[in-house]
Amino acid sequence: ADRLKGKTVIITGASSGIGRSTAMEFARTSPKDLRLILIARRIDKLNELAVHITKQHGPGVKVLPIQLDSSKPEDVRGFVTSLTQDWQHIDVLVNNAGLAKGIARSPDILEDDIRAMLDTNLTGLINMTQAVLKVFLQRGKSGAGDIVNIGSIAGREPYPGGSVYCASKAAVRSYTDALRKELISTRIRVIEIDPGQVETVEFSTVRFGGDKSKADMVYEGCEPLTPQDIAEVVVFTVNRRENVVVADTLIMPNHQAAATVLHKET
Ligand code: NDP
Ligand code: 8X3
């Protein structure tokens, strides 16, 4: 059964990597009657993706690209009410926007990097969740909808040089867990997906401030996951029978056993 039929899905961080692949995977899985709201700061990338999805699937998948910085509470607050009637019936939120900045040890972490990571990975995810929960809770007696939070293996196992990133993802994990408990009397599903090493075009380049050669070294000698691998898991969890909550997942490539335990072929 196509359980996604007629749904409206929001994906944050849809301009690249896991978010972009997730948008395409939703469209591929339910091409007949789906609405995708794609969020990121780079609207040109979102527009390109919208054209690409429309070319592939035609009018069955409606795409709405929105330029929004999810780390800015004041911008997120008005976002749901600013949607036209057709787009306001949100069913799924995929909180994917996030980033790691630098590998500095604690004394040297730049203030801007601390702020970017906490404001995007944690506060932004909370901002978006609050905005969408209003819609979910209005639905029927007990409310319904899906919140999928992209955490990280880094949130389970902190490592040196990743203190703030790891802390932001541990906080996501904790927030997600508390949220699931708060919403226990509703039909809202709260889902956490924790990827291990995924090679996305930009994640490591962003982490190393644009240094592509350093970024490439992260993946040298190992075969990381692809964004598509994670996209498939996201869509799988949302596409389960309504009574099934895939509450928590950890997904790693075959040669990874922990955040810092990777077998590298030399
Ligand atoms: P990318 O760098 O490819 O994508 C990150 C996305 O987040 C981009 O679309 C970016 O768009 C968006 N984004 C960043 N800041 C904001 C903001 N303030 N407001 C709105 N959108 C924003 O990385 P990945 O696809 O790899 O990462 C996606 C998620 O997966 C992140 O949460 C990351 O922490 C997590 N993750 C990644 C892993 C990996 O190894 N790659 C492993 C585990 C988890 P734009 O710049 O246009 O705003
Ligand atoms: C990103 C994965 O291992 O680089 O969340 O922290 S890792």
TrEMBL record:
The keyword Oxidoreductase applies. Keywords: NADP, Oxidoreductase. It comes from the Eukaryota. Signal peptide: none annotated. PROSITE patterns: ADH_SHORT. Transmembrane segments: none annotated. GO terms for molecular function: oxidoreductase activity, acting on the CH-OH group of donors, NAD or NADP as acceptor. The keyword Oxidoreductase applies. It holds the Pfam family adh_short. InterPro entries: NAD(P)-bd_dom_sf, Sc_DH/Rdtase_CS, SDR_fam. SUPFAM superfamilies: NAD(P)-binding Rossmann-fold domains. Belongs to the short-chain dehydrogenases/reductases (SDR) family. PANTHER family: ALCOHOL DEHYDROGENASE. This is Related to ketoreductases. It comes from Phialocephala subalpina. The lineage of its organism: Eukaryota, Fungi, Dikarya, Ascomycota, Pezizomycotina.
